[in-house]
């Protein structure tokens, strides 16, 4: 009997099954490893400072992974709550005034504070949208992340009357951690509906993991009624 030309060899089937298993198991294993690694790192920073009489592990005689992280989250939340009132703001301002007098420390502190305020501020629009710009030549499009409107000297020197500049981040493939900060007129940007997370997956996969897109349904156009000249209706 002649071999079936459509039959897949056993070695190919085993290889495909192995690759499918890797695709399923690798992300799960890496996620678990990173999660427990972060928990252990947080515990190593917080647990040494917990008094023995307040440490529940001494009473239960069992290890409690994540205890340090939970305590750190609670303390950070309390500090944030206290920092919003008058007394807390006064203490923070006093501490910042001391840091601003230190030549090297003030530069590091100002830079880190600006980064965290930009990324974590609730009303910030940083990296909440994706768009397309023509790069590196007309007719060739590149995916960018919208970080906000250009401000300060850049907006004053480059912004033309009636033309708003937008700062965008052009990330490379497949590692989108480095890239170019560019200032582009808003009219030159094609805004996309995909989220920054979907855009990052698209970049990392080299265009293989394109997000699903459902075009918005067109709104029905209201047709005006034509009056009947005889009946007046």
TrEMBL record:
Signal peptide: none
Keywords carried by this UniProt record: Membrane, Transmembrane, Transmembrane helix
Entry keyword annotation includes Repeat: no
Transmembrane segments: 21-42, 62-83
UniProt KW Transmembrane keyword: yes
Taxonomic superkingdom: Bacteria
Protein name: DUF502 domain-containing protein
Organism: Pseudorhizobium endolithicum
Source lineage: Bacteria, Pseudomonadati, Pseudomonadota, Alphaproteobacteria, Hyphomicrobiales
